[in-house]
Each structure stands twice: as C-alpha cells, then as structure tokens.
Amino acid sequence: PQWFTDAKFGIFIHWGVYAVPAYHEWYLVFYSPKARYGKNLGGPPYTAAQGDLSDSLFNVNIRKDANEYHRTNFGVDFDYDEFIPMFKAENYDPESWAELFKKAGARYVVFTAKHGEEFAMWPSKFTPRNAWDMGPRRDLAGELVKAVRAEDMKMGFYHNTTYSFWDERFPNKEWVEYMNNSIKELIDMYHPDILWGDVLFSPERTEQRMPLGAEHFNSLELLAYFYNHSPDPSQVVANDRFDLVKSVNPDSKKRISNSIYRHEVNRWRFDEDLAILGDFQTPERRKVEEIFEFPWECCDALDPTSWGFNKRLPDDKYMSTDQLVDHLVDIVSKGGNLLINVGPRADGTIPEAQQERLEGIGKWLGINGEAIYGTRHWEKFGEDNIRFTSKGDKVLYAVSLDWPGEKLTIKSLKGWDKSRINCIKLLGAQGELKWELKDEGLIIQCPAEKPCEHAFAFKIEQ
After folding, report:
1. Which residues 6+ apart lie within 8 Å of 446 measured at CB?
2. Are the C-beta atoms of residues 278 and 241 closer than 8 Å to each other?
3. Taking the CB of the first residue and of the last residue of the chain, which one, N or C, has fewer CB atoms within 10 A?
C-alpha cells in the first residue's frame, strides 16, 4: 500500500525476557549448550552446565564469554525460565513510548511479540509462557497497540516464523502448527498493519542442503490468513521472512537472483529459481548500494552489538544522531524504508541514550521531513556526499550529508537547461537561494547559517 511506501521511517522494538540478563537477544543460545539457532540438543531446562555433552560439542555450542557471564552472575544451574519472574516491566508506559516514537518522526512501529526464546508478549492460549500469566502479568503487546494507534501510527508485530531457540519440537510439524496458531491469534486479537516474520529461510536444511521451504512452514496459508482476516487486506503488508518458494518466472522481482539478496546466492548455495514471499524485502544491518524498485526496508539497531538491551554497551557506542540521519537519507534515496531498533530495559524503560537519538532525528525530520516522507528515488541515488529524493517530476531534493560551506556543486545536473529550474530553497532557511548552471554542474550559493545540525536538504523546484 502507498502508506508503507510513503512512511520511510519506523521503530523496531526488541523486548522480552532476554532484557533481564541484559546481554543480547540471543543470550539463551549464547550461554546454554543445548539451545541452538536451529534444532536444539534437548529441551529445557536451559542452563550453562555442560551436562553429558563432550568437550568439543559443548564448546562449539556456546559463546565462552556468555557462558562465563551466566555462571558468574546467575550460577551454572540457573535455568533461562528463572528469568521470567524477574521480567516485571514495572515501569512500562506504552503511552510514553508511543509519544517518543511519534516525536522521533516514525510512521509505524514493529514490536517483537515473540522472539526465538518463544515467550509471548500477549495473553496467548497456545503457551503458558506468556506475559499475561507470568512475569509482568500484563498484555504488553495489546497496550502498545492501543497507544501507537492513538498517536496515528501503524502497528506491526514481529514473530519468529522459521526458527526457534527454545522449543525442542522445532522444526517438526507440531511446532509449525503451534507457530501458525500463535501468529493467527495475534492477527485475530490485534489486526496488525504489518506482519514481520523471521527468518528469511530456516537454519535447518533438507537432505539436499536446501531450505526447508515455505511449504514446510505453511507460509502461503498463513499469509493468506493475515490478508483475509485484516479489516482491509489492501492496506496491510508482510515482510519476506517466511522461507522460500520455487519461482517459475525468471523476470520476477521476488526471484532471489533478482532481489536485494542476489549477491548472496553463491554463498548460500541455493538454486537461483527460489523466490521470496511477502510484500517487501528486509536487508539487515546492510548498506544497500543501488536502487531497488521492489519495496524494501533496512532493519538496523541503535546498538551495534545487540537488538535487545545490552547493559554493557557505553552510551557513546550507540549509533549517533548524525549517523542515524545519514543512514535514513541514504536508504530513502535508494527506494527503501528504515526500521530502527530500540532495546528497552526489563523494567520497561527505554535507555536515555536511545531516547536522545530518537529525539534528535525527530528534530531533524521536523525541518527536513518533506525531503523524506512521500518521496521516491530519483534516476540516480546520489553523488559523492549528496543523496537525491524526488516528488514527481516537479521537485528534486538534493540532501548534502555534510554542510557544503559557501556553495554546493551538483555535478549530476550539469546537463540541465536553465529554464528547467524554477527556484531553489534550503529546507529550514528563509527565502530562495542564488544558483547558476556551469560546465561543472549546478552551483548553489548557501546561506551563512546552517538551518539544522545534520544533513541539509536543498529543494529544487521545476
């Protein structure tokens, strides 16, 4: 739908029981030798103990620093689910979260309703491990839905679709049925605008070392359920992380070899006729180097080390506001959206350093938002330290990621006729700017004072 293409900027939230040890959202996999990204080496309890595993198997299935962290802080026999009573969310204020996200300039929010630890953040009838019956004893997901929509933002849910850290049944059909029912329950209870599955293809493989495939996970039926049970199917979107299907059309934009992942085909060793499902692509923590017509969204985090809250990270190691602004501009210039992640503490508060970054980009968007929201990519995404966005054939935005000084030279416009330009303005500054076309390009005279602290958007009206 157009709202998603116009939105450009969303907030991702990774929050769950893993916020208690405050190490990483994959903490369970990192410290416990039985829990894996894929088929586990047994079921719960998940402790740091070696048990009857050989030294080699134990060492290959842990991260030594995480295992030692767990032993030191909680004890070798401390089970992961003993964190659940400690996950109280006592300071969780969904209205203040939504207000912050709105202030940041976000147009949509995606919340981890269930991650690989498989703790449900809503009152689920399909598992007793849920936030209504244990831990916070609140409908954490439902409260946020209400708050986000009250601020006129779209609401989405992340749910694991093709992987698990906790359930020893994975990836058998019993687990698939449970996972499908869990997601359908979310759909029926909250009618999300976005369904955000994870991961693109399962860590488990067939005997031929190929992905288990979307058919194994019942993904086509699940996506049909999502669309058909939404108030308006034309206004909801699903991402691409529901495993892969065979593609019969070599020109399909969903074909892996034509997609944003096409450079990964050889490394993944897949047949090139595989294709993604869903409505948009989701490159993760990646700098995309070209324009893509098929919708895409880069998911990234303010924390470069973890998606969940990591209490070991110093405040100055988070992505800076300047980096965040540049990241957004670069992505939008190539036709994408940015979904930036925050990782709240176990008590439900968002770390102050993360709040500062969101407030900073919100301030920038308050001045420069028209160069972002509702724009489309231009014929090229940029040159040097400049990125382009456009609105139809009447407005071109040239966003300089650094202050250009006395003048900005845009080499890409050196072939333009003078009559094509009506006027040029700098967003946040008063009046029109002087300009001239020369052999080296369009030269714009900049005002003496900067209108904002970060990237600078020049509006070229035609």
Report:
1. 403, 404, 405, 406, 407, 408, 426, 433
2. yes
3. C
Domain boundary among 338, 371, 404: 371
Task: Take residue 45 and report the two structure tokens written for it.
Answer: 């309890």
70 close to 31: Cβ distance less than 8 angstroms? yes
Are 21 and 30 spatial neighbours (Cβ–Cβ below 8 Å)? no
Sign of CA dihedral 381, 386, 389, 393: negative
8 Å CB contact between 281 and 295: yes
Contacts of 1 (CB under 8 A, 6+ apart): 234, 235, 236, 237
Q: pLDDT, tens digit, for every residue of 131-167?
A: 999 999 999 999 999 999 999 999 999 999 999 999 9
Q: Write out the H or E segment, with its range, that includes residue 55.
A: helix 55-60
pLDDT digits (tens, 9 = 90+) for 428-457: 999 999 999 999 999 999 999 999 999 999
Query: DSSP secondary structure string, 214-254?
Result: TTTTTHHHHHHHHHHTSSSGGG-EEBS-S--EE---TT-TT
Distance CA 56, CA 244 (A): 33
Residue 21 resides in a domain: no
3-state secondary structure of 72: helix
User: And the tokens for 209?
Assistant: 């070392």
